[in-house]
Amino acid sequence: MAKRGKKYVEAAELVDRAQAYGVQEAIELVKKTNTAKFDATVEVAFRLGVDPRKNDQQIRGAVVLPNGTGKTQRVLVFAKGEKAKEAEAAGADFVGDADYINKIQQGWFDFDVIVATPDMMGEVGKLGRVLGPKGLMPNPKTGTVSFDVEKAVKEIKAGKVEYRVDKAGNIHVPIGKVSFEDSKLVENFTTIFETLLKAKPAAAKGTYMKNVAVASTMGPGVKVDSSSFGIK
């Protein structure tokens, strides 16, 4: 196991590993235990009682956090004609078709999210081998394949985050920065928490929310008591 720095060790001593905290207290502890010199990201990690190998227990989607993430996403839109103009007016950073496909094939990745109109997906699909492993492929489930490009771009700019369960049943989502007011982090946390509750697959058996923890980029994890939301 990697040796932890002195600051991390001191910060970790403030957290009782055996205890699950109410969300307000957990957020306060995350701020206290942040050791980074920069404005660190606050992330929530969920361990869910699902079997992601089964199609009926896949969890994937997107939600707009009420207070954003503190990061402005650079949006690339694949669209033509009127839809391209709509994307530009909505604030997309890059808009085009074949020219950007060629740039990506040559190794250009100066963007964070791709939106594509459905008629462009035949072309965008050719980039599957490079976009797929980076999690950048547009997907209807996350609202990034749509003819409503104005809505898609504006939501991403407003603080839309994607979530997807990994092979181990975990989901990691950023909910803001350490500099955010506690109440804004709590509100963002509550939004993603409630979104995942609604996304519970009917086929999932046993405890659904097995473990919930929040942490800053370089800080220790702080367990959140999900029963404080009336959840078992």
List keywords for this structure.
232 residues; Ribosomal_uL1; 20% strand; Rossmann fold; three-stranded parallel sheet; Ribulose 1,5 Bisphosphate Carboxylase/Oxygenase; globular; 30% helix; four-stranded antiparallel sheet; 2 domains; alpha/beta; rRNA-binding
Describe the overall structure.
- The protein has 232 residues and is of the alpha/beta class.
- The protein folds into two domains: 17-68 and 160-224, Ribosomal protein L1/L10, rRNA-binding domain (Ribulose 1,5 Bisphosphate Carboxylase/Oxygenase); 75-158, Rossmann fold.
- Helix content is 30%, strand content 20%.
- It is built from eight helices and nine strands.
- The protein has helices at 6-12, 23-32, 81-90, 98-105, 121-124, 128-131, 149-158, 182-198, and strands spanning 41-48, 60-64, 75-78, 94-96, 113-116, 160-164, 170-177, 209-216, 222-223.
- The strands form three sheets. The chain has a four-stranded antiparallel beta sheet, covered by helices on one side.
- Strand 3, helix 3 (81-90) and strand 4 (94-96) form a beta-alpha-beta unit.
- It is globular and about 55 Å long.
- The two termini are 33 Å apart.
- The model has no long low-confidence stretch (mean pLDDT 90).
